[in-house]
Amino acid sequence: MHITERQNTHSMLKLQPLTSEAFAPYGDVLEVSDHRQHFPINRGNTERYHALARVDVTGQEGYPIISIFRTQPVVLPFRIECMERHPLGSQSFTMLGGEPYLVVVAEPGEFRPQTLRGFLAQPHQGVNYHRGTWHHYCLCLNRACDFLVVDRGGCGHNCDEILLPAEQQRLLMLDATDSNDLATDLAQTSCTELED
Ligand SMILES: NC(=O)N[C@@H](O)C(=O)O
Ligand code: NI
After folding, report:
1. Ligand 2 centre from 194 Cα, in Å?
2. Which residues does UniProt call coiled coil (predicted)?
3. N or C: which end of the chain has fewer CB within 10 A?
4. Considering the domain 19-33+49-175 in this protein, what is its CATH number?
């Protein structure tokens, strides 16, 4: 997709690195971190990084389920035209395919485009959207990937989807002025992919 000069900056959504702090208004980042509670188990053969997130799905007699989402890759820049939320439960995504992926969120409540944020998640990171957090459906890069998904089973309406009017749509992209961290991550992953 060619970015025309007419594309003004407010319609761009620049990718930022996924960190627990930046993602806190939207959910939890699932990753090994010395800042989280951890302790040895299994006779010292395993380190347990404990309770990185809660599975919040039991409202209205819901129950937790585990699924796999086999997802086709997208390319950047990518237009954000729709968003969704799950009012009855949280939803977590763990990358099984070893590729970076994209996470686009907005704060819960009435959809406010000014709270839209785009994150570049690394293959070792998972995310857990809190109940009601607006998010784009899962977006992977470079090749088809599987996500392990923990979310809510049971009856009741648990998926509000909205199509964004043109003025609220955003073009998700790398920040060209970035210190190259994100671009390098993506390029290196792509090159690695090519070498395989
Ligand atoms: N619809 C569905 O199960 N998937 C979405 O919720 C998603 O976030 O990918
Ligand atoms: Ni979802």
Report:
1. 31
2. none
3. C
4. 2.60.120.480
